[in-house]
Amino acid sequence: MVSTGGERLQSSIMVDHDMNDNSSAEPVVPAVVFDWAGTLVDFGSLGPVAPFRSVFADEGVEITYEEARGPMGLAKREHIAALTQEPRIEAAWTSAKGRPPRDVDIDRMYDRFIPRQVNAIQDHATPIPGVPAVLAALRRRGIRVGACTGYNRPMLKALEEAAREQGLYADFSVCADDVPSGRPAPDMALKALQNLGITHPNRCIKVDDTTPGIGEGLAAGMWTIGVTVSGNEVGLSERDWSALPDAERTRLREAAGRKHRAAGAHDVIDSVAELMPCLDAIAKRLENGERP
Predict the structure, then answer these.
(1) Is 76 a catalytic residue?
(2) Is there a single domain that holds both residue 210 and residue 76?
(3) Local confidence band at 24 (pLDDT 50, 70, 90 cut-offs)
């Protein structure tokens, strides 16, 4: 069910826009909303993993890289809360502390997580190869570029500053602090579209490397594209990915693609570098009267 916040946002954005109105010179796809880490920057979405692991280690509970990645895409406090609900982690916590985790524990870990994540962002804001060229191509076509993230406002501010120093920016970014409900609710994507001046999300595209982010795009009524190789599902640096044998790369790529398609993605790509042919295909489907 769409959140109350999402319903309020939906009320000001038309989901069933009349595609027969050709009076505007607006592109067929007027906007693309991207996730940040693992999609635009930070190949492998590595930035959040160490901070998540470290705040649990502070509590005497070790979590694996794979466990830390599990809820990726959620707002970061919700991510920590989701980790405490994982059966193995909850059992390890109870063994270490003699009781299950509580809200006060989640709040304490989140408070410690914030500065660690802000520091980690400085080292993980490198644009994923091909992204700057794709954003430039979108802007040449008059397509607006939005972004959203499970980071909070201080984290997003650090990320935007670091990315802009490398020539990468979105026209408008939304973080989990800005809306009533985080992913997979549609609130962030819809707020991004509102601020980009878009009134028809069913002509727009959401690009994300996580299943909550795909859910967000679908809940917003957008075309949704999953990112496999550069994102959280594969979870490897560009160097480590390139060092893999071809057969292993194929296995990981296909596994990530299956997960994204199962979550409802309309298409999947290795990275944003492959976006433009997908965008053109969606534009043709829109011209043929299709909806997401």
Answers:
(1) yes
(2) no
(3) low
